[in-house]
Amino acid sequence: MAVYALVDCNNFYVSCERAFNPALEGKPVIVMSNNDGCAVARSAEAKAIGVGMGEPAFKLRHLVDSHGLIMLSSNYALYGDMSERVMSVLATFSPGAEIYSIDECFLDLDGMPVDNLTAWSQQVRATVRRWTGIPVSVGIGTTKTLAKLANRLAKKSKKANGVLDLSRDARWIEAALKQTPVGDVWGIGRQYAALCGVNGIRTAFDLTLQPDGWIKKTMGAVGLRTVMELRGTPVHTLDTAPSDKHTTCCSRSFGASVTEFEQVHDAVMTFASRAAEKIRGEGLVSGAVQVFAYTDRFRPDQPQFSLNSMIRLSPPTSSTPHIIGAALKGLKSAWRDGYEYKKAGVIMLDLVRPEDIPRDLFSPPPESGARPTALMAAVDGINGKMGKGAVGFGLVPDDAPWKMRCSNRTPSFTTSWDDIPVVKA
DNA sequence: TCTGGGGTCCTAGGACCC
DNA sequence: TCTGGGGTCCTAGGACCC
To answer: What SS3 class is residue A417?
Structure first.
């Protein structure tokens, strides 16, 4: 029988910040999205004073004075590094581990020589906490969806103390399903939750009682798989070797909206350059680049416009100048004056390993464009040694108006020599 | 003044072919 | 009079996830 654990870090970004700044313990703390736009992680104390997930930062400023809310800019270098540490600890507990997101990991517990999974899970929690400083919760179930559901309840219940094992007792599973609002099920988002509500389906348990035909019709094949998993039939297996990405994207909202072509041009050039670095880092080449830019959707009083353009890359490449050239060509062809642009981005499509490029009689040999050139290798090498942006193509001024706002970022404690904390005697 | 970024999968519909 | 149908490929859009 399949048994899965889902280990999920509590309030992960806030917990990372607390690991290096214990003064944040016990206080309402949030971490904001890029551009300091909205709350993406909240401490328990912040949730308690009513801070919602995704709530815009400007609506929260008053809580700084009234409740001592601490609002931090996001520090992805720190979170990425802390995530690797947590995952490497978890890997010591089970040979089968799937890193599902920056703060979640599925473990395969099938055939583990453990008779008390709750006690074992408490040991996992204690070890991760001691070795990394990050608090985690553990949910266990016979399907991934049930493990997710167990994890959510493990976090909510004081009695559970961070661990809930739903793998043994059918009555517990039923009780858990009845306690879970249908919208909190993994795979049931806003739209499907609303559809369920209209049809009188309130809990996960209600959902398991619906006929397959109705589920398939209203929530598609994906929805049906979710319900099968809720009923205890495993559909999703552990994926320990994630396959290569098919697309990758580099996009940002601008710190301030811009109207001039030159500004959007510079932003697109920067994003294209980063996107190229990213795919080289994963050993991939791209067969097409898509560029987009659009106006501020939160300003209905302003004229709205969205531009979008795709340029094929033949042969597929990861070379920065080729990719920048294509992205700018796309931007030029779709550009329209007279709008306040608020966001732009570059998407790399049709990613493949160079050796897997489909070839025909007329394809040039792969060496001529598919592999990173010596120049690209040198650029990446220098940036690896000297720091990001030491050398590059089309570098733009730091004070460009479209650049991100980020007023309250903590140091990169674990990934930058200059930022390593110093212990004072 | 101020609302994130990066992914996946599925489905419907159109173009095209025989 | 009678006006096919099945397959494939591609794209756009919509749902979901963290």
So the answer is: helix
